[in-house]
Amino acid sequence: MTKVRQGFGLPELDHLLGGGLLPGTLTVIAGATGAGKTQLGLRWADAGQTAEGHRGILCDLTSRGDAQNHASYARDQFGWEITPYPADGPPDLGSVWDFDRPLGDYFHPFHRAGRRVTRRDLDPDAWHAWKTDLARILRTSAAYFYAHFVRGARRVVIDGIEPTERFSESIQFEFFEYLYHQILRKEDEWAARELFREQYRANEPRVLAHRYDHDAIGCLYLYTTPHILLDDLMDEPIGEGDIFANANTIIYMGRVKSDGRMGRALYVAKHRGSYCGEEILPYRLTDRGLAFGGMI
Fold first, then answer.
1. Is the pLDDT of residue 119 over 60?
2. pLDDT at 114
3. Record: fold of 11-292
4. What is the mean pLDDT of the chain?
5. Cβ 196 vs Cβ 139: under 8 Å
């Protein structure tokens, strides 16, 4: 059966993507700070309300205190009041099945600001502190995502990931790898086992009563690049074994120069298993969000 595409609600972009993103796949939106990645990611998450009856959920991996303005963008552009999910302490596993209790839709696991995130920038003690923090947050992360999936969320936006020369040296990417492979891409029963562990048997009847299709969950990964110009992004080779090589879809957002002026444009560099337009789409960032049209 053909799965319904997960569109952005932006006709120009959805047409370029053959109707939208493919469920069950990973999409990377890459661009420099200020390109509009967060606004586009929120647009896609918000579109889930109309398409699937449930907005997408957000995971912000920033650790330096430079806010991504998720709350203000969501409120001003979509009338969406984002609420945080508690990241301190062990997860309350009982709350997973409490469907009357509101769940926060914004998860910020690494909230101690100012820390570098790559191994080459850290001394052994600082790296060990990061690994300890990572071990602490993994089960809480599983609870956040699993609880939302059994309630109907089918879109995940990952933001705040810093650029790095080697993904293997990034603690943020290590966290994402766990999240993507052990929760998002696992069948629901196995994701439940990862969460409940020794309490799985006690929770199994509820797990089986609240099944979901993991292949219907799409993931949008917003990646900050050092490249500002769209031409530089398009000329950059897609590496082997990194996030770009493993993504089903890659969208570049960057600055372009035309007639002595600077503007912004978007290009779909990869869209595996689907029609993909070759156009470069100019866009503007407005008070109402990203809008297509204008100069190249």
1. no
2. 46
3. Rossmann fold (3.40.50)
4. 88
5. no
CA distance 210 to 203: 11
Beta bridge partners of 249: 27, 271
Please state the domain extents for the chain: 11-292
Cβ atoms of 212 and 188 within 8 Å: the answer is: yes
Look at residue 170 and give its three-state secondary structure.
strand
Write the CB contacts of 264 (distance below 8 Å, at least 6 apart in sequence). 35, 36, 253, 254, 255, 256, 282, 283, 284, 285
β-sheet bridge partners, residue 257? 262
Tokens of 204: 């199994």
> Which stretches of the chain are assigned E, i.e. beta strand?
26-31, 57-60, 106-107, 155-161, 218-224, 249-258, 261-271, 280-286, 289-292
Distance CA 229, CA 37 (A): 14
pTM of the model: 0.91
